Every structure is written in C-alpha cells, then in structure tokens.
C-alpha cells in the first residue's frame, strides 16, 4: 500500500512539473509578444510615450502568469499536460493585457479603429475556443473554469473602460464589469448567495452576448447616442440576469428552512 501511495505521489509530482514547465514555456512566448503588440499599437495610435502601454501590459502579464503558476502549483489542475485549451485561455489573457495597456493611450479607440476591434474580436473568439478545446480533449478542471471566469471579468472591465474613454458610454457602464465581483462579495455576507447554482446554458449565453455587444460597441460606426442606449440596455439585461439567479437562491434558502 505504501509503495502504491509513493508511486502515485511520484506520478503526480512528475505531472505537475511537466505542466509547470509547459506553462513557463508558454509565458516565454506570450509575454514578449504581448508587450511588442502593445508598443506597436500604441505607436500606431500616435502615442507620445508608447512604452507606457507596453510597461503596463508587461506588469499585467507578470501578475497573470504568477497567478496561473500559483493555481497550477496548488494542485487545482489534475491533468498531466497543459493542453491547447489552457494555451487558448492564456493567449486570451495576453490579449486582455494588451487592451488594458492601451487604456493609457489617449483616444485609443478612435485612433486605432478596426485594428483595436480586431484584437478585441480575436480575444472574444478565444473565449469560445478554449471551452470547445477543453471539452474535446477532456481537460476539464476547476483551474481552467476559474481561469476562464476571471478572464471574462477582466475582459468586460477593460472593454467598458475603453468605451468610456472613447465617450461612447458614461462612466456608469464600467459597473457591468463589476457585477460578478459584487455578487461574490455579497455572498460572503449573505449565506443564500452561497447556494450552488444549477448549470444553465442561458447563463453562459448571457456572458457571451455581453462581451459580444461590448466588442460591437467598439466599432467605428456605433456612435452616441445609440452606443449609450445599447450600453444601458445591456447593463439592465445583465443586472436582471443576476437578479434571476439571486431570486432562485433566496427561494432555495426558504425551502431549506
């Protein structure tokens, strides 16, 4: 029994080292590429100091890579290879970091136009691709699911700030990116919100619709006041979607009493 336990632990350690080495190798490629892209797009937008956006992207990439390695190290990923699904999610994270760096570039949305929309669209595409790859390869994990959800939140916040800077929406629209963090914070104080929600296709669809509409709002032909109307409608719909889940959780709590 002791021999079997030791063999199992050794195999797990080998798998962990393999996954960590694959992740480090991925970062060696993604970090310089994202920093270069941030610098290049900043120059294209006419920024006087494109290194500022590149530095911000580098810092965010460093934080993201550290968080990913910490998650892997804690054993939240049970597989023996990183897989293309997590490569896609990491690449999506790099895209988000580039977009976040461009927040430091004045009039980035107006100056970059379609190239910025293209980057945001590619980042959105990777969001759908990583889930499909995970299902196809059987590499589902708590780590991957958490990584994906937190990337959604970051992507939503970054897009909302870019839209606000472009005067397409008001500052109020940034709240759309903080709906989930606010919900999680409320769950710390309200036990009802800690009741697990059933898996629902409509909830995943709402997240996809939200990010798709935000990317569409970046396009040059969507201008105020229509952009504001669309944004307000989207925010209202997302608030209502959270309200539906919260109402279900409160009802479940009443049934359990």
How would you briefly describe this protein structure?
This protein has helices at residues 2-44, 50-73, 83-101, 108-112, 114-137, 142-165, 179-189, 201-218, 226-256. It is mostly helical and 257 residues long.
Please characterize this protein's 3D structure:
The structure is a single chain. This protein has 257 residues and is mostly helical. The chain has one domain (2-256). The protein has nine helices and no strands. The protein has helices spanning 2-44, 50-73, 83-101, 108-112, 114-137, 142-165, 179-189, 201-218, 226-256. The chain starts with a helix and ends with a helix.
Question: What is the CA-atom radius of gyration, in angstroms?
Answer: 20 Å
Distance between the termini: 45 Å
Q: In the residues, how many domains can be counted?
A: 1
Question: Overall 3D geometry?
Answer: flat
Subunit organisation of the chains: single chain
Along the chain, the helix and strand elements come as HHHHHHHHH
- How much is the average pLDDT? 88
**Helical fraction:** over 70%
Low-confidence stretches: none
Strand percentage: under 5%
The total of beta strands comes to 0
Structural class comes to mainly alpha
Biggest sheet details: none
Q: So how many helices?
A: 9
Please describe the structure with a list of short key phrases separated by commas or semicolons.
9 helices; mainly alpha; 257 residues
């Amino acid at each position: 029994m002791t021999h079997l336990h030791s063999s199992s632990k050794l195999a797990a350690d080998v798998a962990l080292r393999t996954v960590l080495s694959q992740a480090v190798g991925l970062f060696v490629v993604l970090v310089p590429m994202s920093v270069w892209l941030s610098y290049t797009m900043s120059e294209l937008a006419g920024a006087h100091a494109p290194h500022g956006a590149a530095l911000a992207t580098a810092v965010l990439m460093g934080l993201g890579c550290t968080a990913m390695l910490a998650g892997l190290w804690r054993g939240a990923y049970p597989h023996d290879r990183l897989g293309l699904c997590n490569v896609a999610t990491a690449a999506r994270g790099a895209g988000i970091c580039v977009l976040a760096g461009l927040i430091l570039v004045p009039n980035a949305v107006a100056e970059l136009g379609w190239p910025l929309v293209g980057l945001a669209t590619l980042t959105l595409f990777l969001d759908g691709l990583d889930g499909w790859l995970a299902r196809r390869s059987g590499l589902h994990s708590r780590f991957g699911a958490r990584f994906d959800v937190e990337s959604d939140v970051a992507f939503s916040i970054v897009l909302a700030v870019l839209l606000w800077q472009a005067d397409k929406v008001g500052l109020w629209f940034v709240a759309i990116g903080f709906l989930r963090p606010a919900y999680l914070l409320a769950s710390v104080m309200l036990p009802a919100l800690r009741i697990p929600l059933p898996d629902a296709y409509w909830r995943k669809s709402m997240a996809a619709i939200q990010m798709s509409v935000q990317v569409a709002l970046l396009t040059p032909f969507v201008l105020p006041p229509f952009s504001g109307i669309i944004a307000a409608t989207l925010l209202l719909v997302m608030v209502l979607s959270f309200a539906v889940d919260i109402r279900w959780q409160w009802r479940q709590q009443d049934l359990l009493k």
